Amino acid sequence: MKNATCIDDLREVARRKVPRAFFDYAEAGSYAEETLRANRADLEQIKLRQRVMVDVSSRDTSTTLVGEPVSLPVALAPVAMTGLERGNGEILACRAAQVAGIPFTMSTLSICSIEDVAAAVEKPFWFQLYVMKDRGFVRSLIERAAAARCSALVLTVDLPVMGQRHIDIKNGLSVPPALKIGNLLNMLAKPGWVASVLTGRRWTFGNLDGYVKGMEGAASLAQWVGSQFDQTLSWTDVEWVRSLWPGKLIIKGVLDVEDARLAAKSGAAAIVVSNHGGRQLDGAPSSISMLPRIADAVGSEIEVLFDGGIRSGQDLLRALALGAKGCLIGRAYIFGLGADGEAGVGTAIEIIRKEFEVSMALTGVNRVSEIGRQILMQ
Ligand SMILES: Cc1cc2nc3c(=O)[nH]c(=O)nc-3n(C[C@H](O)[C@H](O)[C@H](O)COP(=O)(O)O)c2cc1C
Question: Which pLDDT tens digit goes with each residue over 261-270?
Fold first, then answer.
């Protein structure tokens, strides 16, 4: 990946190496993709303030996220089915994150299981929880995350129902799956991917397989998942989760000031300002447009994290300047994973790190704690 100098380069390689159905799945947003596009477009509108003649020789990108030391204010976001972008993708991404000194978040809907990843890495990782209708199963997931020494629980709250991605239906990535012959042939035409997925030997939802009574195989588990998103979810459920998980809780998917205030009262350590990468409510504002209001409202009470559209160190700097303590990246690392496995995720993180460090210098700051609105054009 020596020739990859930006996230877009990784995306191009991933586009060639990953079967179309899974590449499209990672890239897509819901419905007309207005919110997906807004996430990027609004970030690009934010202009950084170029400063000169400031001693920027002692730059340091390290900080903390929910009390954990990190080398860069970034965590890998939970991404369902990461292990189908590349065989054993969750293990590879978690290893790369730990080498880079940042947290990895494992999705409930991963291909590798919590236990698989815990056995394959050195340090604790974060676990993302969907509260399903089957509360007994949710309780067991929380217990498994605790047994695996996960250091934070990321509770995703923006998916009581699933937004539709048109391309997934067209590609047969639907519930139940209906992969078309063209897609199957396209998969077979990606030998590196086939080899990695075959040798990885994990092809279903690892956290569910064997734990959901009467459900076996990817198709029936996918059907089970589709029927399990809970439309009754409310703040009372957060109290229930907190009673089972005394550790650090991060509430992901807050996009409104009023909801942020409620989250701040819930006893969580952090929120993630997020619209699920433009995959849920299409027509919702970009996450970056909501960040400053939310940070102003609750930033003194709760750690405010951010995601949606981060593709560069400059984007990271923009979000920090508008009040984020750190950012989650989703597609940026998924492209790296599809392009070159663990090394590709490492490349994605290092690209963002270098861009961030250079942009800190050019905006005249040495420390993450110095980054504020003063580095933006008003
Ligand atoms: C392919 C894909 C799958 C995702 N799966 C999950 C998931 O299982 N749980 C979750 O909380 N968020 C999920 N997300 C949302 C991400 O955690 C994150 O909010 C989003 O990707 C951030 O936007 P970005 O991709 O532009 O960085 C997913 C995103 C993508 C792209």
Answer: 999 999 999 9
